[in-house]
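Let us practice reading a record.
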Amino acid sequence: MASDINESPTPFGAVAEWSGRTLFVTATGEVELVNSPQLESVLNQALADKPDVLVLDLMDVTFLSSAGLAVLVRAHRDAEAVGTRFRVVAANAATLRPIQLMGLDQEFDVYADREDALSGAPGL
């Protein structure tokens, strides 16, 4: 069976929703080289909306590649540039481990759940 070249080889999705002046972006599936530009596009649009806080929820992400980590680094940098606080929700091994291995949990705030990220409670 032939595959469609335009078909994403790995499942991925991202949706944005507001809660007051906080914008949550929830990603699902695998964030890797082929679809990391989609996540970056959603995050760029979210920052263009100028939320006070941008929370990237990775709890339903099953794989986070180096390309995905690079998107997080750029989003953090871009958020700082426009005065938006950037927070990441990542408590599963597929997302938290790569973030910690690269030391990114020292660069931006990482939380175990959305509630802590929303309240700004101390991270992991």
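A brief commentary: Residues 5 and 82 are 37 Å apart (CA to CA).
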